[in-house]
Design a protein that fits this description.
The structure is a single chain. The chain contains 1 helix and no strands. It is 15% helix and 0% strand. The chain is low in regular secondary structure. The chain has one domain (6-129). The N and C termini lie far apart (85 Å).
């Protein structure tokens, strides 16, 4: 699970859904078009329950949106982790024998195993020659 702080989340207006009961309209925010009203506009009183607001008419500023970490869902493919942010302990590493590749050791350590045999073979050849 990935935990994201609210300040790391950017929410655009198109991602916000506002239910009509969440909208509060004050009388000074209502514009009455004179041709839609019979009588003088100043005689018209409109209550909030008489106002219908479509979601596309609502503009929400990012600072008005509060998002808790529980409300954020991040897909694993959306997460990018830099290598320097990863720490692996030896206990977390498992290697199977199939994953191990042994390359030949090209240093001269293998000579020490043959040296006594070469020495005694050389002594035997030399002693036969100088008899």
């Amino acid at each position: 699970m990935v935990i994201v702080a609210p300040e790391q989340v950017t929410v655009g207006p198109e991602q916000v859904t506002v239910a009509p009961e969440q909208v509060t309209v004050s009388p000074e925010q209502v514009t009455v078009v004179p041709e839609q009203v019979t009588g003088a506009p100043e005689q018209v009183t409109v209550g909030p329950e008489q106002v219908t607001v479509a979601p596309e008419q609502v503009t929400v500023a990012p600072e008005q949106v509060t998002v808790t970490p529980e409300q954020v869902t991040v897909a694993p493919e959306q997460v990018t982790v830099a290598p320097e942010q990863v720490t692996v302990t030896p206990e977390q590493v498992t290697v199977t024998p199939e994953q191990v590749t042994v390359t030949p050791d090209w240093n001269y350590l293998h000579i020490w195993t043959y040296l006594p045999a070469i020495y005694f073979l050389s002594v035997a050849v030399a002693s036969h020659r100088y008899r």
